[in-house]
């Protein structure tokens, strides 16, 4: 396939409504009508999210829990597929039950936006898992990426989701940063082109049939938030600006970090001056998960009130994933610290996204009817093509392609593990590391390198693991960020296989060719997982 890299023939065409969608004027009128009948409690409820597992008893929606925890409804249901070990039919039924409660039992009767991650496709049990962003960036093929996210949007809509918390377009200025794999790397042009294609694919069928995108993180995450202003505007801001102006991203997530002296979640400089005034962005601004409390886990009510006020006044619209701070909005209005005018823009932006998605219609389409296939052949083929085009061959000394008849020793800790095949923000890794669930490895079969290579060269391949992934102190959990990852140290991953250094070296010495599968895994690399070096972890270098 000829690879085309561009910033716009595609990037020069601004996002526009698809046939059958309402005009922005009609949508705004619909929003104003809904807003006018909402109480303060109803309005505040539109500004935060809720985890579905907090509303479930014995695998099913518990209406009494709903009445207790979200009596006035809720703006968003957070990570409905990635947080639950449910198949497609079970997820769809849960979404139906939640939306039925919201429409029929809350005063406002407004459905929730259901959102999840989409970096590696629909993050659900049994769904196609696509390569990580850093690999996809190596394809230099935005059209193929757009194809991937178009397919992803269809599957997300099928199970009842309307918003993706992707793509990540942070410009990386720290080679040791833990989340590089979620990014397109250090180049602003490449990041802008791939990010725009990602958004275009998600939103290609409009908001009633497609999925709204969330670009993140704003701004300077990845080691770039202290750079000079010239570099901030010309490089770090560039991917966000290109996507907002040309691809029409409708949601934007701030970061955990401080930008200069202010936390991004409540930064007047970032949200009001750069985003709203300079970029003329009129979409939603949402927090990263648990970022609203600005790394303060004291739970002090006076602090939570202050964070809510700072974020609202800076222009932050929604709190994810829960309502730790924004649940206090009605009380803050009653106390006179906030006014209804302070929250009106955020509530209307939240309602506008729902109106665009068709959720404010009399009979909204909330999911697909009929059989669901989350891993069809078209998606598998697209994942394969992305993976094949992502490979970067640094050097070939004549050994490739492998000659027939030679014996091959496969060694190394990544040779026979699915955890070297799955990055952060895949369903399996989110289940393991964010929600502390055992992973059903049969839900989406993942071939290890050893399995695939042995099938290609039957009878010619021998295997010894040889060494472990890491040493005990190879990785530390960073302070701040997503609180769920602080459980990671008790989940250190190593294999149950025999790990015999001498046996591996002996096997290698007797073989014509040695393939060493080395590197990190999802324990060592991902959100909040920080290593002190970018060299091979543990004793892998000595082993090689």
- Count of separate DSSP helical elements: 19
- Alpha carbon gap, first and last residue: 35 Å
- Indicate the radius of gyration in whole angstroms: 24 Å
Strand content: 5-15%
Low-pLDDT parts are 1-16
Q: Within the largest sheet, what's the order of strands?
A: 1-4-5-6
Shape: globular
What would you say this structure looks like, in words?
With 544 residues, this protein is an alpha/beta fold. The protein starts with 23 loop residues before the first helix and ends with a helix. Helix 1 packs across helix 14, helix 6 (142-158) runs antiparallel to helix 15 and helix 7 packs parallel to helix 10 (238-246). It has helices at 24-36, 40-45, 63-69, 88-105, 133-137, 142-158, 188-202, 206-209, 229-236, 238-246, 268-278, 301-314, 329-334, 340-356, 377-390, 427-434, 449-456, 501-509, 540-543, and strands at residues 49-50, 56-57, 60-61, 76-78, 113-116, 163-164, 214-218, 251-254, 258-259, 262-263, 284-286, 408-411, 461-464, 476-477, 513-516, 529-530. 35% of the residues lie in helices and 9% in strands.
Short description:
The chain has 544 residues and is of the alpha/beta class.
Question: Main attributes?
Answer:
544 residues, alpha/beta, 4-stranded parallel sheet, 3-stranded parallel sheet, disordered N terminus
Secondary structure topology:
Layout: H1 24-36, H2 40-45, E1 49-50, E2 56-57, E3 60-61, H3 63-69, E4 76-78, H4 88-105, E5 113-116, H5 133-137, H6 142-158, E6 163-164, H7 188-202, H8 206-209, E7 214-218, H9 229-236, H10 238-246, E8 251-254, E9 258-259, E10 262-263, H11 268-278, E11 284-286, H12 301-314, H13 329-334, H14 340-356, H15 377-390, E12 408-411, H16 427-434, H17 449-456, E13 461-464, E14 476-477, H18 501-509, E15 513-516, E16 529-530, H19 540-543
Parallel strand pairs: 1-4, 4-5, 5-6, 7-8, 8-11, 12-13, 12-15
Antiparallel strand pairs: 2-3, 9-10, 14-16
């Amino acid at each position: 396939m000829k690879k085309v890299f561009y910033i716009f023939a595609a990037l020069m065409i601004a996002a526009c409504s698809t046939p059958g969608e309402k005009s922005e004027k009609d949508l705004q009128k619909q929003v104003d009508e809904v807003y006018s009948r909402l109480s303060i409690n109803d309005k505040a409820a539109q500004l935060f999210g809720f985890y579905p597992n907090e509303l479930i008893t014995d695998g099913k929606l518990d209406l009494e829990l709903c009445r207790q925890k979200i009596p006035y409804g809720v703006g968003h249901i957070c990570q409905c597929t990635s947080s639950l070990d449910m198949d497609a039919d079970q997820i769809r039924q849960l979404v139906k039950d939640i939306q039925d409660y919201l429409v029929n039992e809350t005063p406002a009767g407004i459905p929730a936006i259901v959102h999840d991650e989409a970096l590696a496709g629909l993050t659900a049990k049994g769904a196609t898992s696509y390569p990580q962003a850093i690999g996809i960036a190596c394809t230099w093929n935005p059209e193929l990426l757009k194809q991937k996210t178009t397919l992803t949007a269809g599957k997300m809509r099928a199970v009842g989701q309307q918003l993706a918390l992707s793509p990540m377009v942070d410009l990386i200025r720290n080679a040791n940063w833990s989340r590089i794999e979620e990014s397109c790397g250090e180049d602003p042009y490449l990041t802008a082109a791939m990010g725009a294609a990602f958004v275009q694919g998600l939103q290609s069928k409009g908001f009633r049939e497609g999925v709204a995108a969330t670009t993140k993180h704003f701004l300077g995450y990845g080691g770039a938030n202290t750079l000079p202003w010239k570099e901030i505007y010309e490089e770090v801001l560039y991917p966000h600006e290109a996507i907002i102006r040309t691809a029409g991203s409708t949601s934007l997530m701030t970061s955990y970090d401080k930008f200069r002296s202010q936390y991004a979640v409540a930064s007047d400089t970032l949200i009001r001056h750069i985003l709203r005034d300079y970029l003329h962005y009129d979409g939603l601004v949402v927090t990263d998960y648990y970022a609203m409390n600005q790394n303060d886990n004291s739970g002090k009510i006076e602090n939570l009130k202050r964070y809510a006020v700072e974020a609202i006044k800076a222009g932050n619209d929604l709190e994810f994933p829960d309502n730790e701070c924004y649940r206090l909005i009605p009380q803050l209005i009653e106390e006179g610290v906030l006014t209804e005018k302070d929250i009106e823009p955020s509530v209307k932006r939240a309602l506008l996204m729902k109106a665009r998605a068709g959720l404010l219609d009399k009979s909204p389409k909330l999911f697909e009817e009929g059989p669901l296939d989350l891993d069809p052949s078209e998606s598998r083929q697209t994942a394969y093509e992305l993976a094949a085009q992502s490979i970067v061959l640094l050097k070939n000394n004549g050994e490739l392609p492998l000659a027939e008849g030679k014996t091959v020793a496969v060694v190394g800790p990544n040779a026979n593990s699915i955890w070297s095949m799955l990055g952060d923000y895949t369903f399996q890794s989110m289940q393991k590391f964010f929600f502390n669930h055992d992973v059903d490895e049969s839900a989406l079969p993942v071939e290890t390198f050893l399995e695939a290579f042995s099938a290609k060269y039957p009878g010619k391949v021998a295997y010894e693991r040889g060494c472990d992934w890491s040493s005990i102190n190879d990785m530390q959990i960073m302070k701040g960020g997503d609180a769920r990852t602080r459980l990671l140290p008790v989940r250190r991953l190593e294999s149950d296989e025999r790990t015999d250094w001498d046996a591996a070296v002996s096997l290698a010495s007797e073989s014509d060719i040695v393939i060493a599968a080395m590197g990190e895994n999802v324990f060592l690399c991902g959100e909040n997982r920080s290593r002190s070096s970018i060299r091979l972890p543990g004793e892998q270098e000595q082993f090689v």
